Amino acid sequence: MELTELMLKVTSDLDELSIPYFITGSCASMAYGEPRLTNDIDIVADIQRENIAFFLEHFPMPEFYISEDAVREAVAMHGQFNIIHPTSGLKVDIIVRKESEFGDSEFERRRTLQLSEGKRADFASPEDVILMKMEYYRMGGSEKHLRDITGMLKISEDLIDREYISLWVERLQLGDIWEAVLKKMSL
Q1: What is the pLDDT of residue 59?
Q2: Domain total in the chain
């Protein structure tokens, strides 16, 4: 199974179960920016307790590894869990939607993009991907997040609402990181 196939399987299953979601992280940054290697897919999903049993049925062992306990805990705590496809080594990180003003904004602004012929999926907006990449950078300091942001700004500049980013940069206290990104862009 390839990355796009796994992405389509998970997003199709979420659609079938009427669970709102969006793809974020490196897969989303590649959709709006420059390609790079990745073995994981990050998806924010609004999974509720009543969806868990039906959701788990879509990922049977041994084709997939998914811990029911981890899913239940993630839903209860608004955390995350993994779906692993052992044969390919690919992993899906499912991040359970957090109830917040920013989380609501992300879901309102998601965009449906074409993945392959006749296949579509919901993605975070480019602005929200940039904001989350800055959050990830703040948490872990990996330069790959800054590279992803600058790639998105170079390639998708005409799609990006910088006023929206500025608003949330202030609210999320990401000003130093945003300034560093803008400085890097001007070099």
Answers
A1: 95
A2: 1
Whole-number Cα distances in Å, 144 to 34, 36, 136, 149, 171: 11, 10, 10, 9, 23
Question: Whole-angstrom Cα distance, residue 27 to residue 61?
Answer: 25
Picking from 111, 137, 138, the residue whose alpha carbon sits closest to that of residue 24 is 111
CB 15 within 8 A of CB 138: no
**Considering the entire predicted model, what is its pTM?**
0.92
Q: List the strands of the sheet with 80-85, edge to edge.
A: 80-85, 90-96, 40-45, 21-24, 119-123, 111-116
- Can you give the CATH number for the domain in which 136 is found? 3.30.460.40
Q: Which domain holds residue 30?
A: 3-186
Instruction: Please say if the pLDDT value at position 187 is more than 70.
Output: no
Rounded to 5°, angle at Cα 86 from 55 and 2: 85
Q: How far apart are CA 66 and CA 157, in angstroms?
A: 38
CA dist., res. 20 & res. 28, Å (int): 16
Q: Is 118 left (phi over 0), alpha (psi -120 to 50) or beta?
A: left
Rounded CA separation 162/157 (Å): 9
